[in-house]
Amino acid sequence: MRRDVFQAVADPTRRGILDILSDQPQNVNELADNFQMSRPAVSKHLRILKECGLVSTKKKGRERYCHANLDKLGEIALWVHQYRRFWNTRLDKLEALLKEENK
Questions:
Q1: Please, what is the angle between helix 39-51 and helix 12-23, to 10°?
Q2: Distance (Å, rounded) from C-alpha 70 to C-alpha 14?
């Protein structure tokens, strides 16, 4: 099953992982310390983030470090932007209509 960026950020834990990794790379144990869940549960969230292209791992010695690839979040920004334009246009029309009625 191919996951997309929207699925990745739909979960608060995955958003938290991205927030942490946006500051600096961390290994899975360091990440797990930030959440009240097991290491395997954090690994499951990381797997989903990897499938979406938002996280990559690099081996350094015996450790695997997770890195955030936040460029993929641009897909969400584009989607939100088109709906922001839609609602701004609709609200501007409503405002003009209300002003016209109050004259």
A1: 80
A2: 13
Specify the pLDDT at position 40: 94
Once rounded to an integer, what is the mean pLDDT over residues 15-29?
A: 95
The angle at the Cα of 11, spanning 3 to 47, to the nearest 5 degrees, equals 45
71 in Cβ contact with 57 (< 8 Å) = no
Cβ distance 46 to 8 under 8 Å?
no
Dist. CA 55–CA 65, nearest whole Å: 10
Residue-wise pLDDT for 39-95, tens only, equals 999 999 999 999 999 999 999 889 999 999 999 899 899 989 889 988 999 999 999
**In Å, how far from its chain's centre is CA 52?**
10
What's the first-to-final CA gap in the chain, in angstroms? Answer: 57
